[in-house]
Amino acid sequence: MWSTLCGHEEFLEVSTEIVQIVNKYNAASNKYFQRMQRLRGFMRNKGLPTVTCTRILQYFDYRFQKTFYKEDQILSTLSEPLQKEIKYQTCTCLIENVMIFKDLPTTVVLRLVDRLKSVIVLPNDVIVEAGTIGDYMCFIHNGTVAVYTAAGVEVCHLTDGSNFGEVSIVMKNEKRIATVVAVDACELYILSRADFEAVIGPYPDLFNRMRKIAEDRFKTTMGQESIILNNG
């Protein structure tokens, strides 16, 4: 008899938890639906073309219905120190994967992480373009991008954890040598040259070392592009 009662109570507890989860999901779904309805009304009032409307809907779908919607909801309940700790844990490896940032002091790495800005790009968005002056580099948190030479030859795909554009934050007024296009929706972290210089400014020896590495990599990349063009 006792075991039957205990089993019944456990079943009720589990059932209650399931109902709570379903209710939370329904509330989130309703909020998302209302948000999308307002967005569609806004686009109608602006008379936006279909192509633009489609891209806006893709962006909102990724931003609010998928990882970001849940992530924002969770992070908003945490204290600022915990939010920073999560960002450090998430982004430190992105910084340390960059050749020019190898063996940086931990304090410098954490300051660079503090400066990272999160952005979302959609499929076919041009993230950087060959021939333009660059002033930021990118880290791929989620997603895939395609890399093309200035002549339009596809070189490779980069995915989660990869980075590109580091030469632009170390070598001023240097034109980009590759075009990078989003293959699917991506979450990127951006580090601008201004933020990089603000962090590295007090460490001239570190900056000179990083510049030397970036210059060597730039020369190597230019040589590889020349080979690709000649073979093409």
Characterize the structure shown.
Helix content is 59%, strand content 17%. The longest helix is centred in the first third of the chain and has 45 residues, at 2-46. It contains eight helices and eight strands, in the order αααααββββββαββαα. The chain is an alpha+beta fold and 232 residues long. The mean pLDDT is 82. The chain has helices at 2-46, 50-65, 67-75, 80-96, 106-115, 166-170, 193-200, 204-231; strands at residues 117-121, 126-128, 136-142, 145-149, 154-158, 163-164, 178-182, 186-192. A hairpin with a 4-residue loop joins β4 (145-149) and β5.
Secondary structure blueprint with pairings:
Layout: H1 2-46, H2 50-65, H3 67-75, H4 80-96, H5 106-115, E1 117-121, E2 126-128, E3 136-142, E4 145-149, E5 154-158, E6 163-164, H6 166-170, E7 178-182, E8 186-192, H7 193-200, H8 204-231
**How much beta, percentage-wise?**
15-25%
SSE order, as H and E?
HHHHHEEEEEEHEEHH
Label the overall shape: globular
Task: Give the oligomeric state of the chains in this entry, treating copies of one chain as homo and distinct chains as hetero.
Answer: single chain
Number of strands: 8
State the secondary-structure class: alpha+beta
Kindly report the spatial arrangement of strands forming the biggest sheet: 1-8-3-6
Terminal CA distance:
81 Å
